[in-house]
Amino acid sequence: MRIYQEADYEAMSLRAARIMAAEVVRKPDCVLGLATGSTPVGAYRQLSQWNQEGHLSFREVRTVNLDEYKGLEPTHDQSYRYFMQVNFFDHLDILRENTHVPNGMAADADAECKRYDELIRSLGYADLQLLGIGHNGHIGFNEPGSAFVAPTHVVDLTERTIEANSRFFASADDVPRQAMTMGIGCIMAARRILMVVSGEDKAQAIYDAFCGPIDPKCPASILQLHPDVVLVGDKAALHKLVEAGVSVCG
Ligand code: PGA
């Protein structure tokens, strides 16, 4: 595992964008596993800029997103499809048909989860999977529980996640109660994991994920078993790791 400690959000985003760009340069038709949330937005902005300046092409890149709210139309301004369009895809030369997000409106959600797993398998799994981390240690919408769940599945969001995400909705009541999420299986099948994290409020989750026991109560702790994890964080998010003596670069 390699850990980059950066001064702040901007530097963290630049480092993450460089790692993603390197993957696209190395393999122009790579499969990128992508994440929503506020943390990756800076990296998406940087990659979009490099694309527009002609330094980087996404023409052949394929993408698979981690999750989607159940019951939101792709055009709903809080759906993750919409988020990806506005924050990333609309600014790139990527082909829409090469970008994949679970269909939150599928009549049969379980069938949609199976289809999504099959799709990711047929793409050969992600070359690089970008991840954020929740305050409760979730990755994608794999919430703390009594077991790690391998396949893409429908989840009931925890109160803590609903509360955290309510900042994007008119009120907590408007936050969907369920989502579809890539399971631990597809995440762990990615050849490389890139986790991005920013802010003191994530320091404990990061500490639990990488210094605590491997336990489904902290879903991100499974990443301790992945052979190629890169963690990029700002000082505030990584300080508990550093204080625990974990060595970092940067
Ligand atoms: P955030 O979300 O980037 O908005 O903090 C991360 C997550 O919940 O996975």
Report on this structure:
With 250 residues, the chain is of the alpha/beta class. The chain has one domain: Rossmann fold. It has eight helices and ten strands. The protein has helices spanning 9-26, 41-52, 80-87, 109-122, 159-165, 184-189, 203-211, 235-243, and strands at 2-6, 31-34, 62-65, 67-69, 99-100, 128-131, 153-156, 178-181, 192-197, 229-234. The strands form two sheets. Strands 1-10-9-6-2-3-5 form a seven-stranded parallel sheet. It has a three-stranded antiparallel sheet with strand order 4-8-7, covered by helices on one side. It is globular. Bound molecules: 2-phosphoglycolic acid (PGA). The site of 2-phosphoglycolic acid has 7 residues, from loops.
Overview in brief:
With 250 residues, the chain is an alpha/beta fold. The protein has helices at 9-26, 41-52, 80-87, 109-122, 159-165, 184-189, 203-211, 235-243; strands at 2-6, 31-34, 62-65, 67-69, 99-100, 128-131, 153-156, 178-181, 192-197, 229-234. The protein has a single domain (2-243), classed as 3-Layer(aba) Sandwich (Rossmann fold).
